[in-house]
Amino acid sequence: MKHLRERDEADEQSLQKYHKLAEKIDKRDRVILKNEEEREVFEEVFDRQTLMVLYDLSNGGAFSYLNGVISSGKEARVYWGVTQDKTDVAVKIYLVASSDYKRRLQYIVGDPRFNKIGRDSRSIAEIWARKEFINLKQCSEAGVSVPKPIAVKGNVVIMEFIGIDGVPAPKLMDADVEKRDYTRITKAMEVIYKKAELVHSDLSEYNVLKYEDKLVIIDFGSAVSNRHPSAEEFLVRDVSNINRFFERRGIRTLENGKLLARIRGEKVN
Length: 269
Ligand SMILES: Nc1ncnc2c1ncn2[C@@H]1O[C@H](COP(=O)(O)OP(=O)(O)OP(=O)(O)O)[C@@H](O)[C@H]1O
Ligand SMILES: [Mg+2]
What we know:
Phosphorylase Kinase, domain 1, single chain, binds magnesium ion
């Protein structure tokens, strides 16, 4: 009986925290729920456990409040967050309710960094968040231009905001590009492979932002160790996506094979 009561109390405390956070969000009117549809979306993203995670992150100082949604993808929502000292951060919430799990697993199973993998949807969303955080850290430390990772908890990753006043920098597909952007991105691919020992695995004009004349690579949830059994296949795809984009923009590129060899550190004639 005592055991049950203890659980009730713990539950009651969680519930209070939950209400406090929901109230905080409502009160500040930062997330405006205009109609029923928006409320449904809100509840899909901010399920009780995710709210608790946000509450903890916010208490730990990673952000102070959310200032609105930046992007609603199939697998994740990205929010514009603001810290106490008014610095913008990107708050990426992996959706527990996403149905794309089969596709996700191939980017985790086989990565020597992730041995134990729960198969329920929350565990996968959480591992995805942790993976993106670790990947960003490895790239950051290797000197690749990526958003600086700030915090990770549960299915939420917080990182440096790339843009101004809550407006993200344009994706490569929406920006003007020059030859030196090609040089930069191919150099970054090389450093990601050799120094961070990763393959991005979802690299394209959609996942590179052009900010203050620099290129910043984002969306590292799919990135795998370069020792992952499918790493080579993913690298070939990244190379051909990047080459295709620059060729379409009229920029001379290295042949796929040559670029691949350069990234892998093989001799190129
Ligand atoms: N650190 C960041 N700073 C600013 N904007 C960001 C940041 N990270 C992501 N965004 C914005 O959110 C969008 C989606 O982010 P990301 O690609 O990481 O998520 P995603 O779930 O793959 O989304 P999608 O499925 O649309 O590609 C980006 O195109 C960009 O506009
Ligand atoms: Mg993306």
